[in-house]
Amino acid sequence: MQQVNRYCKSAKISEVKFRYLLRLFALDLTASDTARLTGLNTRSVNTIYLRLRRRMQAECRVPVELAGAVELDECYFGPRRVRGKRGRGAGGKTVVFGLFKRGGQVYTEIVPNCQKKTLQAIIRGKVDVSAMVNTDGWRGYDGLVDVGYDRHFRVHHGQDEFVQGAAHINGIESFWGFAKARLQQFRGLRQELFLLHLKECEFRFNHRQQDLYKSLLKLLRQQPL
């Protein structure tokens, strides 16, 4: 009698093979490489990978009132800038806003633009006014002091300023570099899948000091796929 798979009850795959697949996923192997190593077909592996990403997305909870030292920044994902297009992030890119609590975790959110109104609505809902807020010189961050963020510090990258005492955004920029490097392996993502892959990057980054395989096993033991 085949052993019940405690981690993935929705797929006809043994627990031993699933754990092997999960280990390969944690190592960031592609679905095609995992299929070759496990003997499963690529479609089955892609289905499980999709479910894993959805579970990881569900675990990327919205922070409530971030305090301490917090770094804020925006990033643009997508094709290279189109010639002739002007403006910050021009050329049909997906705009992502990120919040990083130093010594803690990163949180990302897809936004329609980087205008002051858009960014401040997120900041005022997720960052405590007592926080040490660190940003670059983008005008979308203008006026934070006026709405209560008295400890707003800026570094002006356009003036080759990247660290000013304790003021910097190196942590969130480290995440952007990690996420872009990871997503390049897919050589373009369908728009409807981008958020799942972004949240996978977020989950991996937030568990970078842990054994990801063991973290996923524990998560799936509590709530199987």
Automatic annotation (TrEMBL):
<feature type="domain" description="ISXO2-like transposase">
    <location>
        <begin position="65"/>
        <end position="206"/>
    </location>
</feature>
<dbReference type="InterPro" id="IPR024445">
    <property type="entry name" value="Tnp_ISXO2-like"/>
</dbReference>
<dbReference type="InterPro" id="IPR053164">
    <property type="entry name" value="IS1016-like_transposase"/>
</dbReference>
<dbReference type="Pfam" id="PF12762">
    <property type="entry name" value="DDE_Tnp_IS1595"/>
</dbReference>
<protein>
    <submittedName>
        <fullName>IS1595 family transposase</fullName>
    </submittedName>
</protein>
